[in-house]
Amino acid sequence: YNIGIEFEKIKKIEKIGEGQSSVESSQTIEKDEKLPKILLLSTGGTIASKVDYRTGAVTPALSATELYEAVPEIAKIANVDAEVLFSEYSENLQPEHWLEIAKKVDSVADSDYTGIIIAHGTDTMHYSSAFLSFALSGFKKPIVLVGSQRSSDRPSSDAASNLIAATKFLRRYSAKGVFVVMHHNESDKAIACHLGTRVRKNHTSKRSAFETIGSPPAYVIFENTIQDNTYKMENKVSRDYNPRINLDTKAALVKYHPGFDPEIIESLIKLQYRAIIFEGTGLGHVGKTMYDSIKKAKEKGIFLGMTSQCIDGRVSMTVYESGRDLLDMGIVPLETMIPEVALVKAMWVLGNSDSDDEIKKMMLEDYASEFFTE
Fold first, then answer.
1. What is the Cα–Cα distance from 327 to 295, expressed in whole angstroms?
2. Per the residue annotation, which of 122, 167, 212, 307 is the catalytic one?
3. Pick from 242, 162, 177: which is nearest to 208 by CA?
4. Which one of 33, 55, 188, 250 is separated from 220 by 20 to 30 angstroms, measured CA to CA?
5. CB-count burial class (<10 Å; 0-12, 13-18, 19+) for 104
6. Which of helix, strand or coil describes residue 318?
7. Cβ(150)–Cβ(46) under 8 Å?
8. Catalytic (active site) residue 201
9. Do residues 132 and 98 make contact, with C-beta atoms less than 8 angstroms apart?
């Protein structure tokens, strides 16, 4: 998959035969009524794609039903009902898609499904998992987002193994929450199940691209066993199901860097943004060239939250004088929250709050284990 060949070193190219194309007929998969029921929702992405051998590109091609048929092993684990919500690469998914997914999942809250699988592209999967974690906090059954780094018709594809692992997890565990299921390492023998608010895509192409920040994955799924690591995790939230499927996209994630132009903050003020999440340096800092713009933003009632560019660790703004200055300006430290999760949470909070005080209170409340002890 990730291989390059230098043209000048090719000594010979020989055609050895013609490829044969075939169209596989749709197969009927018999259901065993003794098995639990699972709903598989497809949104697109590599897991629902095939290679177009005319162009060499990966293109959306598989429906949810075709995914089910391509991995017949899951028929021995559970009865799967498949439905296509949309067919998009995940970089094309927008907050309105999150709302559509959440509303669909909410509509089956009282169904006899054991759990929900959402087939999703990997590029923005952790954004979607974060929103669903907040909007559907306390959902009565597990929700699992599954993707793949390699399309389903490649020999190294992780689509089947990830789908099988997700199905096994839903059959065995009834834990509340939203999870992301992807390869744990380069082997096919271990698949990680990450909490939806504590996971990041940390590699562009390898199959174990997703990692839980601050702790091991919540679960690791092996062929015949599932390792439960949740005892190592704090801040687990168990609440009654109270869906709040609203958002406001007037929230921005600002990554500070040397040379950052404060006019960008001024523009966000003019565009009437209601929340700015800073991805600051180290323990939670931005340069003093930003101070005047930050003060203006605070005067306009904009929520200002601080996260860190560091992959792991906690924002701590009382250690250095510059951090204390920012606290005095009204920036709220968001502890161990991942920047992307903080952005999504801000959108969700803005859509479900009526006052500045309520926004701050909700941003600091733990709804879906978005805060954690490293």
1. 11
2. 122
3. 162
4. 33
5. middle
6. coil
7. yes
8. yes
9. yes
C-alpha 274: how far from its chain's center?
A: 23
End-to-end CA distance of the chain: 35
**In this structure, what DSSP letter does residue 28 have?**
P
Instruction: Give residue 60's pLDDT.
Output: 54
65 torsion bin: left (phi>0), alpha (psi -120 to 50), beta (else): alpha
Active site residue 289: no
Identified catalytic residue from 141, 168, 176, 201: 201
**For 54-93, what is each residue's pLDDT tens digit?**
666 655 555 656 666 677 788 889 998 888 898 888 899 9
What is the pTM (predicted TM-score) of this model?
Answer: 0.88
Say which of 43, 46, 197, 212 is annotated catalytic.
46
pLDDT digits (tens, 9 = 90+) for 104-140: 999 999 999 999 999 998 999 999 999 999 999 999 9
* N residues, the chain: 374
The enclosing H or E element of 98 equals helix 95-107
356 is catalytic: no
Instruction: Give CA separation, 365 vs 9, 10, 175, in Å.
Output: 59, 60, 21
- One-letter amino acid of 164: I
User: What is the spatial distance between Cα 212 and Cα 341, in angstroms, rounded to a whole number?
Assistant: 13
pLDDT of residue 75: 84
| Residue among 106, 123, 153, 228 flagged as catalytic | 123
Question: Could you tell me which of 232, 200, 207 has the C-alpha nearest to residue 344?
Answer: 200
Tokens representing 144? 């699992």
Largest CA distance in the chain: 73
Compute CA 98 distance to the chain's CA centroid, rounded to the nearest angstrom.
11
Q: Which two tokens stand for residue 93?
A: 């998914």
Both structure tokens of 334 = 């968001």
How large is the angle between the packed helices 356-364 and 339-350, nearest 10 degrees? 140
Per the model's pLDDT, the better-predicted residue between 21 and 55 turns out to be 55
Tell me the two tokens of residue 17: 């035969």
Radius of gyration of the chain, Cα coordinates, nearest whole angstrom: 22
| Structure-block tokens of residue 241 | 């199901």
Determine whether 354 is an active site residue.
no
Quote the tokens at residue 239.
């609440």
3-class DSSP state of 78: coil
The H or E element containing residue 58 is strand 57-60
